[in-house]
Design goal:
Two copies of one chain form a homodimer. The first copy, chain A, has 292 residues and is of the alpha/beta class. Chain A has helices at residues 18-34, 69-81, 128-131, 160-168, 188-209, 264-271, 274-277; strands at 4-11, 39-42, 84-94, 97-105, 111-116, 142-144, 147-151, 173-178, 181-182, 213-217, 219-223, 228-232, 236-238, 244-247, 254-261. At the A-B interface, helix 4, helix 5 and helix 7 of A face helix 4, helix 5 and helix 7 of B.
Chain lengths: 292, 292
């Protein structure tokens, strides 16, 4: 039995005008729904510029509650269009407790679940440890009307452990809202290597787990006084063998469509049954930070 | 400080004549050494045809002890040429206890260590569970004069856990002797997808762990009455960002050379410090076979 699902990835740039950013997301969701997409995924922190380029306490003004104005707006659209949307919210959980949170809103407009980013980066220009309390909900897929979604966020994409845990809890699709780009200081070869690494590691999660992968990245150059990031877009969908089904450009706002077939997981895992053979009795070391 | 190392991968076909196969390996090692390679890696079970295509008890006649005639022959060459070699032996450990074992022989001719294949496949044409007792030495890098080698074998290459454990025990290079190929029954698209998956998953171990990867596969069509495998060669070296430095053809016997720089691990892990951010307190689930 085929279990085909049309998906859409919403890739766009952002400006300082948060209402305009949100409206752009909503308009692109609307178009995707009109074009038949039933699962629509937004990029990480789609309502704002990537504010983690600097550590400013005023950045916390961007945070909002869940539910809140952004989830309400998306929820209304989901209910109207009968679609499932993965959105990304800078969550204000309490005074001084903020998370980088992905929410899934189902086609009835309810919040099916949320995932709080577990792996938090901190590198020059990506000061996320200042902004985000590490997630405390673990790696739990979110059940929706169209399947169990293994929603992870950006930096999580570099950790095979996160994808594996989602898979072993019956996730049917791996989903990565993302904000990643180039430093204009790097030369073109280094830029190519970084983007290729980013694509390869996520394709590998598809292969290792026999699951389709959806990765959604923003585009556009965002400049601060001290740094700049040229977000590389390239949002893509890979199937259960890691084959790219569809990929966006590096520098254009666009909707990337693909048709995934959840049923292919059955076939793929029969051919290459990795889960049968994991040597879990020898994996204790994975619970260490390092082993010396 | 640069820590450059010239490596060579020995990719060849095999026949029923085991002495001829071993001589071919030795000759190609000799050429590699003459050409300046200091680390030379042989393919999986290089002395024989891939006998796991069928379950025949006479296959166990191919097994030998470690040390034994094959390790002795390679050892002499290592000492003579001052090289380090990774070889693959069908190990007879005891009556009825056989392993698929990789050994590392250092430039003084001594056996620096061994690794017994931990993840054992069993699929049509790859009846390894019949032949090989699963390894009981865990995931331990082998210390040599040229660095700590994270030696794994074939099916292990599909498991991010194995690469991760080797990395966290200070492996400096990940090494995969392999025997993988196409079923002539599959169409060209499926063949391409399988080979691409195999390349991608191994490049991902380089990326996730910031380590160079050496993968060595046999070539040649090996036919049995009931099945056939067209081994796809394509032995390759990837650097710490998963970039392919050198790759062999699908169907020719050849030596694949590359120069890796162990020092690049320092730079790569500074740019993308994944090990800093692993959420080990939430990884308990990795020790399960499945989580429902």
């Amino acid at each position: 039995m085929s279990q085909k699902l049309k998906v859409a990835l919403i890739q766009h740039s952002c400006t300082e005008n948060v209402e305009s950013n949100l409206n752009k997301s909503l308009e692109m969701i609307d178009i995707s729904a009109e074009n038949g997409a039933r699962l629509i995924v937004l990029q990480e922190l789609h309502k704002t510029l990537y504010f983690c380029q600097s550590e400013e306490i005023t950045n916390f003004d961007f945070a909002e509650t869940i539910p809140g104005p952004t989830s309400d707006a998306i929820s209304s659209l989901c209910k109207k269009k009968k679609i499932t949307v993965v959105a990304s919210i800078f969550e204000k959980r309490a005074v001084g407790v903020y998370h980088n949170t992905a929410i899934v809103i189902d086609k009835d407009g309810t919040i099916a679940g949320k995932y709080r980013k577990m792996h938090i980066p901190d590198d020059p220009g990506f000061y996320e440890k200042f902004h985000f309390t590490p997630g405390d909900l673990g790696f739990e897929p979110i059940q929706t009307s169209i399947g169990r979604l293994g929603v992870l966020v950006c930096w999580d994409q570099w950790f095979p452990e996160a994808a594996r845990l989602m898979a072993m809890k019956d996730a049917e699709i791996l989903i990565y809202p993302t904000a990643i780009g180039w430093s204009p200081k790097d030369d073109q070869d280094e830029k190519n290597r970084q983007k290729e690494s980013w694509i390869t590691i996520q394709r590998s999660h598809a292969i290792a787990n026999g699951l389709p992968v959806l990765a959604v990245n923003r585009t556009g150059l965002e400049e601060k006084e001290s740094s700049a990031i040229d977000f590389w877009g390239s949002s893509f969908v890979a199937d259960q063998q890691g084959q790219i089904l569809s990929m966006g450009s590096t520098n254009k706002e666009e909707i990337i469509y693909a048709e995934i077939d959840k049923q292919k997981t059955e076939i793929t895992r029969r051919i290459w049954p990795f889960f049968r053979d994991r040597r879990v009795e020898n994996y204790d070391g994975l619970l260490n930070k390092w082993m010396n």
